[in-house]
Amino acid sequence: MKFAPSLILTVALLGGIAAEGASADSVPAETPTRQGGFTILCSPKTLREPAWRNVVLALQAKHRNAGRNVIVQEVNDWSEDELARCLKQGEARYAGIVARPEEVNRVLVMNLHRAARRMDADPWGDCLWGIITGATPEDALRVATASKPLVMKRLLSTTNVDASRFEHSYCITDWTGTPILEQSGYSEPKQTLYDSKTPEGKAALEIGLQALFAEQLETARPQMIVTASHATQFNLEMPFGCGLIIPSGGLFYQASPRHLFAYKPVLKAALAGDRETHRRWVKEHCLKPVEADGEPRIWLAAGNCLFGDAYGCADSMAVTALSSYTCNQIVGYTVTTWYGEGGWGTMGSLLNNAEGTSLAEAWFLNNQFILHRTQKIEPALLGIEFNEEQFSVAAQARMIRSMEKARIAPEKVAPVMKDCFGLIHDRDVVAFYGDPTWRAVVNESNTKPAFRITWNGKDSFTISSEKGGKGRVGVLFPESVSSDSVISCDAPDAVFTNDFILFESLELAAGASRTVTLQYQK
Asked: How far apart are the C-alpha atoms of 218 and 213, rounded to whole Å?
């Protein structure tokens, strides 16, 4: 392990931060602990502030206690080149970016994605990174020190999610009529229609579906939140405009459908930097706060625009969710979303990749599948970038000009131009917040994914399927391997790298299995 000449912090400076206890609902035994070094990136200003310095120290201590090589790197700026230099110098498999809210924005996320692919010569991501921040240093410290694995049994969502995976689920769907699906005890979900054609439905819609969302968040102790519908950095809209959740002063507030029109200029002011007008509007309209319950959870904003953009502001949706609503990890778009592969693909990998896949692994592997799909269409597309705040006609024109400069044959990409635009768009715009080594996995006691991965030492694994299945599967190696030490593997139908293997379409009959062996240089 190479140590950077920048500041190396010692555990001796840390004053007794206790680790969390072992989990009663542990992750599957067949899922090995992912090994590899951990690099902590932070700005000099963050290190100079004692409370934020403690976040860095605590994160360092946690990973040293876990047996990882840990280095701390001061980042002179958040440019792609500087981040790539620091990540490459650290040779880490994981990275935690400790940053104050004002340092976190869309550009940082974009630069991290690109820098993490520059640690070696191949086009793939080389480390799992996560942004560790909070409205206060104490909030960030909670995120940094989370260690107890989370097996997610309780779901709250604003879209439909497979209820069979959860002991309790509550889904405000975005279907016609906005039916709500609720179940407990792995039962068949009960459907309740909130239809304006009935007096009861009309009354509920006047109050707004945000009241139901807030009630579940306050009382049902959801461990996994999945959201879709419209959103911005400063609000989450219920399906079909039936109410808003708005962050202000560290809490979420409920705004009914009648507030939608009046809120638009206030949102515009917040996006322009006028946070005081935003806070004053919430107070003047006596919006009801959403009480925090202290439950550890994750938030996957799979279908929301902009939710993952902290916007350099503690009052944003992402930072408020991390802080007051005790999310240890968040995945969300930093731009407007239309193609959806970055968000929905992450959820698909979390639910279906293989037993024991964590949210961080699902997000990372999904991004590698995006790269693989892009490369299959045309390798030169990997050099085309999306750098805009939103996908527009002008953005499309810039991409097309970049394709022309790269001498990409028009006839090759024209039939799949929507996919070209979408894959390039989604590649670098989905943020991950939290320590990427913290394990949040979906409950598998009632329904399991089709595939199971069992490692036979470090150079062989077996994929098995009890019930049979077909789908894409990504397999992360349990240990970090240098890019020049792996020769091959006996899986010609897979994408093979020094860190993972991707099966684009794997099919196994019920009870069947397949063993893959890696070969290394002696």
From this structure: 9
